[in-house]
Design brief:
611 residues; alpha+beta; 10 helices; elongated; 27 strands; nine-stranded mixed beta sheet
């Protein structure tokens, strides 16, 4: 019995082993057929839904024996695709050329096909959206499609919001119609330069539009027409204005940014940066590719005769010097306050006219023109109302503006915000500025325009007591200034009041002179330095604290230079006190011209230094 059991067990073991070997041999080298993925739309409008925005689609594609590597989607409009119904009934008929291949499990905003049938605007347009997946073994999933009805209304209210020029038309009730009419002829005058100064920021436009559909995204296209040639001088299709970082392909010139800074103009027949008359246009496009009506703005470009930061001009300075053409701005007596110098305006004007005529005769300068500063004699109006009857073209034809103001006794006098804005644009492109007088910025220093102008273009300390102390409103009848002491006597002589001129109630002392605080030095930043310090009367009481503070400042940047005298040079003694052959005021002005015409940077062998 035992032997029989052992034999049975042994026989069963052998049979089982043979079967296992045979089975394993039968399947050696065979592969299971690849299973294709299947696509699932994870986030999209429901099938047959009506939408007013271009949707964002998300999907995923499970694969039982691998993973999806690519996805393909296609979008059709019934108004544009003749085979729309065929594709809807059988998506496999969609040609390969109609599929968009992506690797991600989502597609950014799908710009549903542009419906060019005008009568369909604002009504529902039928769209077919299809998606399929491809796995790591090139197997394709079944195609999934949904129908979407898209409504759309084109963008409206396209408007240029910020202009690089001034527009003033509502001045009637202020009694300034004549000023407004004059400004309306000059509001669009600017400069457009090459990339030659550190400060020049270009011509800035800002715009906006509305879309009743509240689209996911809106794009803009701007272009500038040269009115002389009729050509497009510049447009957003230029690669400089593309915004690739936002993931949108803008090779067609449409950008998502709602602003642009123009830095040069030109067309085939008109060289860049020579000036001329242009029109700036901008239009909007929604996510269904419908365009708005464009908005426009005139643009008159004036380029300075001498670009003070052009490398060739710098070379001319080094080799031959530069012809100084000066715009002499007479601001004395423009205020409405007590104006103690009003009886002497003609005398002040004659002093500067004679001085600059002598400079021209001695070839210190090439030429000069005299103009009056803005008339601020508008009672009850803030300084911002003041207009300057000097066009940008007038400024562009001169490389130095010399502003003098002996009076400056009234809070409406001096350089107003509007004038400061024009002067700021002037120096940004390389113009030079010299200011000579008392409180030429006026005491209304709380205005942000003043802060910006004083800090950026004159090198004055800004903020809190530092700046306001520079122009603290003093009692005009208190005399305390008795001299300006030079910190660089080899360049600038000491200056003292002229006893032959009516300075005030105390002989030898000048009232109303403020003190200046320069911007603190910083590595690589523009530099301001005090060139004259305050010499105060020892009996001036509180004003004795002015002793040693700045009364004149030189300011240098990589693009421009300015000089600010807080004491009127007209009131200083123009005698040869140093026995060097040159009267003191004349020598001070010549030194200011020498400083002001120095190149923004000097080339030394292969190195360039900014200062």
């Amino acid at each position: 019995m035992r032997k029989y059991n052992i034999a049975v067990v042994l026989t069963l073991f052998i049979v089982t082993l043979v079967l296992l070997i045979n089975c394993s041999m039968d399947y050696v080298g065979e592969e299971k057929p690849n299973q294709p993925p299947f696509i699932i739309l994870a986030n999209s409008p429901p099938d047959s839904a009506t939408v007013a925005q271009a949707p964002i689609f998300w999907w995923y594609a499970p694969d039982v024996d691998g993973y999806a590597t690519l996805y393909k989607w296609a979008d059709f409009s019934i108004n544009l695709e003749p085979n729309f119904r065929q594709y809807e009934n059988n998506p496999n008929l969609i040609p390969d050329s109609c599929w968009v291949t992506v690797e991600s499990t989502y597609a950014d905003t799908i710009f549903l096909s542009h419906d060019t049938v005008d009568f369909n605007m604002g009504r529902a347009t039928e769209h077919l959206f299809c998606i399929k997946a491809i796995d790591d073994d090139t197997a394709e999933s079944e195609i999934t499609c949904i129908t979407i009805y898209r409504t759309n209304i084109p963008p409206v209210n396209m408007e240029i919001l910020a202009f690089p020029f001034e527009r003033y038309s509502d001045w009637d009730e202020a009694g300034l119609l004549e000023e407004a009419m004059w400004d309306s002829m000059n509001y669009d005058t600017l400069w457009s330069l090459k990339y030659t100064t550190y400060s020049w920021q270009g011509i800035n436009f800002v715009w906006d539009a509305e879309d009743p559909d509240d689209p996911v995204i809106m794009e803009f296209y701007w272009y500038i027409i040269d009115q002389e040639t009729g050509e497009i001088a510049q447009c957003s299709e230029d690669s400089r204005y593309h915004d690739f970082d936002d993931g949108i392909d803008t090779l067609d010139g449409w950008i998502t940014s709602s602003s642009v800074t123009i830095t040069g103009l030109g067309s085939e027949r008109r060289p860049a940066d020579i000036g001329g008359s242009y029109i700036f246009y901008v239009k909007a496009r929604d996510d269904a590719f419908y365009e708005s009506d464009p908005d426009s703005a005139p643009l008159t470009i004036v380029t300075p005769e001498i670009d003070l930061s052009d490398s060739l001009v710098v070379e001319e300075w080094v080799n031959e010097g530069i012809d100084l053409k000066i715009l002499l701005v007479d601001a004395t007596g423009t205020g409405v306050g007590p104006g103690i110098w009003e009886p002497y305006e003609s005398e002040v004007h004659e002093f500067y006219e004679n001085m600059f005529a002598q400079f021209k005769n001695d070839n210190v300068i090439f030429d000069y023109n005299t103009v009056d500063a803005p008339n601020t004699n508008f009672p009850g109006q803030a300084p911002s109302w003041s207009s300057w009857r000097i066009s940008m073209a007038d400024l562009a034809s001169n490389n130095i503006v010399y502003w003098y103001d002996v009076n400056a006794t009234d809070r409406y006098a001096g350089i107003t915000p509007r004038v400061a804005e024009r002067l700021g644009r002037y120096v940004e492109i390389g113009g030079r500025l010299i200011i000579d007088g008392r409180k030429c910025l006026g005491p209304a220093v709380a205005d942000n325009d003043y802060y910006s102008f004083a800090y950026q273009y004159l090198g004055l300390c800004a903020g809190g007591l530092c700046f306001s102390g520079s122009y603290a409103w003093a009692n005009w009848n208190e005399e305390y200034f008795k001299g300006a002491i030079s910190r660089f006597p080899l360049e600038y002589p000491d200056l003292y009041p002229d006893p032959d001129k009516d300075l005030g109630t105390v002989p030898g002392l000048v009232p109303g002179v403020g003190r200046l605080f320069p911007r603190q030095p910083a590595y690589g930043m523009p530099c301001a330095r005090i060139i004259y310090t305050f010499d105060c009367d020892t009996g001036a009481g509180v004003y004795e604290a002015y002793q040693g503070d700045g009364v004149a400042i030189e300011f240098i940047t990589p693009s421009f230079r300015t000089v600010y005298f807080e004491v009127p040079l007209y009131l200083m003694e123009n005698e040869d006190n140093d026995a060097d052959g040159t009267p003191d005021v004349e020598q001070t002005m010549k030194q200011a011209f020498k400083f002001i015409q120095t190149p923004p940077y000097v080339e030394e062998e292969e190195d360039q230094t900014r200062f």
